[in-house]
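Dig into my protein:

:::
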Amino acid sequence: MSFTGGCQCGAVRYRIEADTLTCYACHCRECQKQSASAFGISVPVFAASLAIEGELGMWRRPTDSGSHTDCHFCLQCGTRLYHAGANRPGLVTVKGGSLDNASELAPVAHIWIKSRQDWVVLPKGVPHLETQPDNQEEWVQVLSGPE
């Protein structure tokens, strides 16, 4: 199955080859800043499943874990399209709002809620984490969604 998306101006397009997409909402201050909103929607996919057409820029930012994240964006309009974290090789997180059909996404978890805006109401039945999972096993559990 294919999922498509791109930047605001159309200079960059992408295709994700995957059976389904899962996402989580991140309420950290970095996601609030990059999205210019209350939280960011991240869609983790294997890097090998993501095909990009168009020219991207990259900006590297440090993370709370002491690692770094490479933030990839359209050089024409600046739309952030995906992140590649050094601590999760082979995976990237596509920015959910850049998908052509983002309405199909529903977060399976909310992370970094200690930084969430007070007016954001978190849904019942969806896991909420004060920060983020500490290791790959915890990420897998979170992304599996509520049981």
